[in-house]
Amino acid sequence: MQNRIADLLKKNQLSITDSRKKILELFQNAGGALAHSDIEKMSGEHFDRVTIYRTLQTFVEKGIIHTIPTVDNSVLYALCKDECSAGHHHDNHVHFICDDCGTTYCLDHVLIPKVELPLGFTEKQTDLVVSGTCKNCN
Amino acid sequence: MQNRIADLLKKNQLSITDSRKKILELFQNAGGALAHSDIEKMSGEHFDRVTIYRTLQTFVEKGIIHTIPTVDNSVLYALCKDECSAGHHHDNHVHFICDDCGTTYCLDHVLIPKVELPLGFTEKQTDLVVSGTCKNCN
DNA sequence: GTAACTGCAAAATATTTGCATCCTT
DNA sequence: AAGGATGCAAATATTTTGCAGTTAC
């Protein structure tokens, strides 16, 4: 278990440090999405705010986690299901936001179809967000 | 045209003020999604930052506009379906936002593909936002 | 030992709130 | 005239940056 975390860091050419191990562990235990503030609380004031910002940013760059959109102004992070090649992670699955309970779901198996852009337009990122009612609120 | 805007405000029991008229006009002209910062720029320093915050919040509460979440930290706003119809139907097409110049394009001929949701999920609205570089900045 | 990472301080941004004044109705 | 909306100032909250000290390898 601990080895999986260490391996993941090693595979991405990151030094194995306490904060990184701890934050990855939080994600694995949570099993879902976490906000920056969640991590801050759960890590028990152990780590500096700034360290968390930088750690999350590093993880996103390496493709270990990805950000998911929310209706309120917060940014959520979640572990990437598939292992992506470092640096070139494409977050190409659909997100679903429930209007009732506000939960955000990663629909990992629903892929964003390739959109064909007019001439001269270059795609860098595509977000497909569906809102409506989730299975629990229906 | 101007009447449509006034009617919309009236219908929602809102006083007809300059800032509200101007902001609604911006949305109609843009034909797509706008960020708070876009509105601030486009309104030409005419309105207070705070007024824009409060106006957008009011519009969201009244259901005149809705937020479109994106994976980066920005929140986009767009006119709700029912209201943005009149001349055009801005319903099911893709929005493109240029990272360089910040312009939002309505790609009217690029339709959002139907996404298949897991059982129990009900779709109410789908937003597909592509970001990258537009034809002018490329 | 060296490069990378962390923590602290502080700067830069973004958002919210209180209140006096002005505008819409 | 009355209630709501705006603008200003200031309080909060969030994110970024610089740098010195510490740690992983």
Number of helices of chain A: 4
SSE pattern of chain A: HHEHHEEEEE
The CATH architecture of chain A would be Orthogonal Bundle
Which pair of chains forms the biggest interface, and how many residues does each contribute? A-B, 42 and 40 residues
Tell me the strand percentage band of chain A.
25-35%
Question: Would you tell me the overall average pLDDT of chain A?
Answer: 82
Number of separate domains of chain A = 1
Main beta sheet strand tally, sense and closure of chain A = 3 strands, antiparallel
**Share of helix among residues of chain A?**
25-40%
Specify the oligomeric state: homodimer
What is the CATH first-level class name of chain A?
Mainly Alpha
Q: Indicate the low-confidence ranges of chain A by residue numbers.
A: 83-89
Can you describe what's shown?
- Chain A is α+β, with helices and mostly antiparallel strands.
- Chain A has one domain (2-132): Winged helix-like DNA-binding domain superfamily/Winged helix DNA-binding domain (Arc Repressor Mutant, subunit A, Orthogonal Bundle), CATH 1.10.10.10.
- The first copy, chain A, is 32% helix and 26% strand.
- The first copy, chain A, is built from four helices and six strands; from the N terminus they run H-H-E-H-H-E-E-E-E-E.
- Chain A has helices at 2-11, 18-30, 36-42, 49-62; strands spanning 34-35, 65-68, 76-79, 93-98, 104-111, 122-133.
- A three-stranded antiparallel β-sheet of chain A has the order 1-3-2.
- In chain A, strand 2 (65-68) and strand 3 form a beta hairpin.
- In chain A, helix 1 packs across helix 2 (18-30).
- The longest helix of chain A has 14 residues, at 49-62.
- Chain A is globular and about 45 Å long.
- Residues 83-89 of chain A have low confidence and may be disordered.
- At the A-B interface, strand 2, strand 4, strand 5 and strand 6 of A face strand 2, strand 5 and strand 6 of B.
- Strand 6 of chain A pairs antiparallel with strand 6 (122-133) of chain B, so a sheet runs across the interface.
- Chain B binds a DNA duplex (25 and 25 nucleotides) through residues 14-20, 36, 47-51, 53-55, 58, 73.
